[in-house]
Structure formats: C-alpha cells, structure tokens
Design a protein that fits this description.
Rossmann fold, seven-stranded mixed β-sheet
C-alpha cells in the first residue's frame, strides 16, 4: 500500500465504520450483460470473508453505490451489510444520513472509493482509500492507495489495515486457529 499521509495508522485507530463503493472497488468496474440483458459482476471472496468478522468485532460495514443493480443488492444482502444505498446520485447526502443513523463522526469512518462521485466523501472521512487502478486525481485526494486493483481485494486490504492498527487482526487470526471443529 502507498500511504499518502504520515498519520494513516493513527487515523485507522479511530475507525468504527467502513463504507465502500461497489463498481471499481468491490469489482473491477466491468459490467457484463448477456443476450437476455442479465447483468453479471465478479466479486473477490476475500473482501466478503472479512465482513462478518468486522461486524462481530463491532464495526459497521456499509456500501453507497451510484448504480441501481439487483446483482449488487443481492451481494449486499448476502454479506449482511449494516447499510447499503443504491442508485445514489449525491453520495454525500447518503454519507450524512449514515453518520446520523449510526451516530458517527467523520473521524470514525473509513471510505473506499475510486471515482469522481466519491470525492465529496473521500475528502471528509477519517480515513480515505482508493484502489491502485484509480485515476491519479483520485489518488491525490486520499490517505491510502491500495496495492490491489478494483475487484482484487481492495476492501480486504483496508479492513486488514484497520484491524491491525487497532491490534485486532492478530487476535482474529489466533482465534481462528483455535476453532474447535468437534463442536
């Protein structure tokens, strides 16, 4: 990861919620349609895997996406996100609603976005991140540029960084090793 600012770890220690965009963050940004008009998207399971652990540890996990898509809604429901809004034209409005609903301040929220529509949040939130393949003008406005490209584990990179900064990642790993398969 590329840390654009020196205080990223300190910022990550305050995070209580992680919000992300879908297209270009959780996916590679591509949209596939078949001859019947059905939409397909490809997600990285490593991103989805960490969400249940974050929630169990008390983090709020959310998505705000500009596209209206049943495929995306299904994935958000499958991941049991605390909050997800679709077809959003002004993401800052939904971000503000999210903060009120969960009684959070900017400094407690990490946001991962990759395009112009995300900038209004990226410049306000406590910890901002973008994928390696984002445009340069997005990279210039964030705290962290991940090593991963969109759809290749961007969310996981940031989730692991936040957990590690709060000394929770090692505990999560160790607890996972102790799981009793016999019940």
């Amino acid at each position: 990861m590329i840390f654009k600012k020196d205080n990223c770890k300190q910022k990550a220690q305050n995070i209580k919620a992680i919000i992300f965009d879908i297209d270009g963050v959780m996916t590679d940004g591509g949209i596939i349609y078949d001859d019947s008009g059905l939409e397909y998207k490809r997600y990285n399971v490593k991103d989805g895997q960490i969400i249940s652990h974050l929630k169990r540890l008390g983090f709020v996990v959310a998505a705000i996406t500009g596209r209206e898509s049943d495929v995306v809604k299904n994935r958000c429901n499958e991941l049991k996100l605390n909050f997800h809004k679709h077809g959003v034209k002004d993401k800052l409005v939904e971000y503000t609603n999210f903060k009120k609903e969960y009684n959070l301040e900017d400094s407690q929220i990490a946001y991962i976005g990759d395009d112009i529509i995300d900038l209004s949040i990226l410049v306000r939130c406590g910890l901002s991140a973008t994928p390696a393949d984002a445009r340069e003008y997005i990279k210039e406005n964030v705290d962290i540029v991940t090593s991963s490209k969109g759809g290749e584990g961007v969310f996981r990179d940031i989730a692991d960084f936040v957990l590690d900064s709060q000394n929770l990642l090692e505990k999560l790993i160790n607890d996972s090793k102790k799981v009793d398969i016999n019940g």
